[in-house]
Here is the input.
Amino acid sequence: VYDIAKMPMTEMNRVRGSQIAMIFQEPMTSLNPVFTIGEQLDEVTLLHVEGSSKEYAKKRSIDMLNLVGIAMPESVYARYPHELSGGMRQRVMIAMALICDPELIIADEPTTALDVTIQAQILDLLRDVKKKMNGSIMLITHDLGVIAEMADIVVVMYAGRIIEMG
Here is the structure.
């Protein structure tokens, strides 16, 4: 067992983005309201992809927005988070997680604040992403319906300890 919380920051920065990425529960609290969607997506590429240029980062960001099913990605690239719906913000978070082709995506309650229709779209998107990536998605949820639909392996935890696995 390796405790990544005790990893030196330089080593942790190498792991973030390229090996492990995160999709947070509430995208509005994860996206910075003073920067455009494009600036935030570009930053991930510029930080984690060695030798990347601003032009490459922009192209990669727009490609990722397109991949996650956002219509008119160039327009969304120039918008601020408050200008997007909850489902679109969650798609942006998924695009941000995918931008460096990680081996593991940790999705923490990615559908909690969404209505049922958008929730189904996000789950379909995650399923498609799983097929396209060469890695895994760790889905953290309390929703047994989501678990039944999405999980290959289920681990039940209580107070940070594994209770059941199957």
In short: The CA atoms of residues 141 and 147 lie 7 Å apart. The two ends are 21 Å apart (CA to CA). The helical segments are 9-15, 27-30, 37-48, 54-67, 73-77, 86-98, 116-132, 144-150.
